[in-house]
Write a structure and sequence with these properties.
2 domains; Spore Coat Polysaccharide Biosynthesis Protein SpsA, Chain A; alpha/beta; binds magnesium ion; 10 helices; eight-stranded mixed beta sheet; binds uridine-5'-diphosphate; single chain
Amino acid sequence: MEKISIIVSCYNEEQALPLFYKEIEKVKNQDFQDIDFEYIFVNDGSSDKTLEIMKELSSKDDKVKYISFSKNFGKESAMYAGLEAATGDYVTLMDADLQDPPSLLRQMYDTIKNEGYDCVGTRRVTRKGEPPIRSFFARIFYKLINKMSKVEMVDGARDYRLMTKQMKDAIISMKEYNRYSKGLFSFVGFNTKWIEYENVERVAGETKWSFWKLFKYAIEGITAFSTVPLVLASAIGLIFCLISFLLIIVIIIRTLVLGDPTSGWPSLVCIIFMVSGIQLFSIGIIGQYLAKTYLEVKKRPIYIIKEKNF
Ligand code: UDP
Ligand code: MG
């Protein structure tokens, strides 16, 4: 019998997790009698009763495996740990808050089975229930990153996807520390089909992503999958050199023709401000990449496990 590994990263999901388990079991009993399931719950350093709930579920159901981190490492690390632990022929990544409808799973499985895809991803076509400002910046981010990166990032794509073991192995072979999964999924290639669905709101609990956290995640995505910002710095530098060269010629000619009227101090100050601003900005961009490289060469572990049941 084939097996699907269901990886669920959980950070303070004591309210949502029991509901999630109930729902996914329902789907298992209805649509997946011919297939084995394996649940891998990853507790990402929750401070509430999430781990207790995982332990309770695993004592009742031997399909349930859990991994508990020594602190909060972030969703990317949790997904990676889950992928490494998965033993199924197919692997899916889901959120604990039921924003990734388990009812789509059968359709996803059939698509891989019958249509020869390696992966079926899901895409939200609406962002209903999300703060408008968040949707606005999300849209800008996807426009930007798709211009800057060769790796295609699909707007509204969720981490919720079903993939073959082969694709999963390709993803865990990338052991980088700064993980931006949306990019990694796309980077490994394979044939992905997208299923669209309307946004579903969280069943219980609260979102763990503040605006600031999302902003940092966006920067992560850009630095991990594009070096265009670095090129930008040199391009601006080059343009400024050209402009100043032209200005020098203009000033020399003007001085020769009109003499030397001492004027232009305010404009000079403005120019100094602007150019030094651009220099600092460019150094900042280089610094971003340097910082990422620094973290990468240290080869720190992506996650640290405190306990697990397998
Ligand atoms: N999550 C996690 N570690 C974190 C933040 C979030 O494992 O540091 C999990 C969280 O428990 C949930 C999933 O990632 O299962 C998605 O988080 P959330 O629903 O808060 O994000 P949103 O759906 O609002 O983008
Ligand atoms: Mg959510």
